[in-house]
């Protein structure tokens, strides 16, 4: 939980307040001075973008960097770049809380006030100047500039206000692909979940309509878009971890280079169709194969098709286990730690089960009360099926059972 401390000062015409996030203290614009109406969106109302509600997003960054350094990284010096840094809190936390003096942090923001504030925090709070570099550039321009200067960060993070799509190509062009880490956040979840199909087509190149597993397919659409951009550059983006929390999607990917690697991406791309009536779903692998266009229950009629999408794994188990270890080593507030532990235990260790069924929706269609999700899972497992909860939906169950078996299990509790 972000703690707002009592110390207040002014700098460059901004009224600042010191906050503590994790073990890191910095000055940020004081929300009480700038947010007068509760209906205002706090980050956008501040002169420099800062969102305390995204603390868990930044926690995931720290956990993923810890896991990366213990799983893949073989660099003598690691360079982390955050292209849209705002106050720079994420980068400052990496310096303070990742106990690795070989990490250099590059923080960039197009807002000159943001870069002056980051520099002020470095000097005022004694962050090591040799480990933090500040840029005031457009993100895409910076990616091209660093490549020209032969500065190749092996960890790049893009966390925009909205879609990351405009930044993906140049970020992937900059990253070398020698088992590098790419961390991407999307906050424009409405197009990806099917609310705005044309926006999904325009930004991500996918067909998305409202569907019964919208949060998972949204994350998979994002993985597809990133992987497609990487493949254009003869690189492969391999998912290591992914979440859909609150109003954001966050994915962690390992980037490898080479045409052979890039071609492997297309083996885990496919299409999904679902029945709007019973919510059974069908998948096809390969970009040129389509799933069934009619439900197996003949009276239900046509299915809706979604895609193309990523239908491979989202989680790397070894990476997830290192993230679990990091939960005990990095100072993360207990509420966030519990959420992240559940995500790893529910989803990362059952990652071969794609998509989920909504038990609440099944009960609604049967006109019965909603049973306890653990009870339904128990019935399925006794019948020889695999079943697990999922963070994508509090009433969702991932299972290798088909919809009729779910209906039978729910009916047992009528």
Gist of the model:
The chain contains 16 helices and 16 strands.
Give the tags.
414 residues, alpha/beta, Rossmann fold, 2 domains, seven-stranded mixed sheet, 16 helices, 25% strand, globular
What form results from the Cα inertia axes? globular
Oligomer: single chain
Low-confidence stretches: none
Count of DSSP helices?
Answer: 16
Summarize model confidence as the mean pLDDT.
95
The termini sit apart by 41 Å
What structural class do helix, strand and pairing data support? Answer: alpha/beta
| Percent of residues in β-strands | 15-25%
Radius of gyration: 22 Å
Descriptive report:
With 414 residues, this protein is α/β, with parallel strands linked by helices. Helix content is 38%, strand content 25%. The two termini are 41 Å apart. It has helices at 31-34, 42-45, 55-71, 89-97, 112-124, 139-148, 165-174, 189-192, 197-204, 214-232, 259-265, 317-327, 334-346, 359-366, 373-382, 403-411, and strands spanning 3-11, 14-21, 24-29, 78-82, 103-108, 132-135, 155-158, 178-186, 235-245, 248-257, 269-274, 281-285, 304-310, 357-358, 387-390, 393-399. The radius of gyration is 22 Å and the shape is globular. The longest helix has 19 residues, at 214-232. It folds into two domains: 9-269, Rossmann fold (3-Layer(aba) Sandwich), CATH 3.40.50; 357-414, Phenylalanyl-tRNA Synthetase, Chain B, domain 1.
């Amino acid at each position: 939980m972000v703690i707002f401390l009592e110390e207040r000062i002014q700098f460059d015409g901004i009224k600042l307040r010191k906050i503590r996030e994790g073990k890191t203290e910095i000055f940020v614009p004081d929300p009480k001075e700038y947010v007068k109406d509760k209906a205002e969106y706090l980050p956008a109302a501040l002169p420099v973008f800062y969102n305390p509600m995204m603390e868990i997003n930044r926690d995931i960054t720290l956990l993923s960097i810890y896991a990366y350094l213990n799983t893949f990284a073989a660099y003598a010096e690691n360079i982390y770049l955050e292209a849209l840094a705002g106050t720079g809190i994420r980068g400052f936390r990496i310096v303070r809380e990742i106990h690795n003096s070989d990490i250099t942090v590059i923080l960039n923001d197009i807002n000159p006030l943001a870069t002056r504030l980051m520099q002020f925090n470095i000097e005022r709070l004694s962050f090591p100047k040799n480990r933090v570099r500040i840029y005031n550039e457009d993100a895409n321009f910076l990616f091209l500039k660093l490549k020209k200067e032969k500065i190749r960060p092996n960890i790049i993070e893009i966390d925009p206000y909205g879609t990351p799509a405009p930044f993906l190509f140049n970020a992937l062009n900059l990253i070398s692909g020698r088992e590098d880490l790419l961390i991407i956040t999307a906050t424009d979840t409405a197009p990806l979940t099917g609310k705005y199909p044309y926006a999904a087509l325009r930004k991500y190149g996918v067909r998305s309509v409202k569907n019964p597993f919208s949060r998972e397919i949204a994350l998979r659409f994002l993985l597809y878009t990133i992987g497609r951009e990487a493949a254009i550059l003869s690189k492969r983006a391999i998912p290591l971890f992914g979440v859909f929390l609150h109003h954001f999607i966050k994915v962690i990917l390992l980037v490898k280079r080479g045409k052979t690697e890039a071609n492997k991406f297309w083996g885990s791309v496919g299409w999904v169709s679902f029945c709007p009536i019973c919510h059974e779903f069908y998948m096809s692998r390969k970009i040129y194969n389509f799933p069934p266009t009619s439900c197996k229950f003949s009276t239900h009629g046509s299915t809706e098709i979604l895609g193309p999408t990523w239908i491979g794994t989202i989680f790397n188990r070894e990476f997830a286990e290192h993230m679990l270890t990091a939960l005990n080593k990095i100072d993360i507030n207990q509420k966030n730690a519990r959420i992240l532990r559940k995500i790893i235990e529910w989803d990362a260790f059952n990652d071969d089960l794609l998509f989920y069924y909504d038990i609440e929706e099944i009960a609604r269609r049967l006109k019965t009360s909603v049973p306890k999700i653990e009870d339904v899972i128990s019935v399925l497992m006794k019948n020889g099926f695999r079943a697990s909860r999922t963070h994508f939906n509090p009433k969702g169950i991932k299972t290798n059972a088909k919809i009729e078996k779910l209906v039978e299990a729910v009916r047992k509790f009528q």
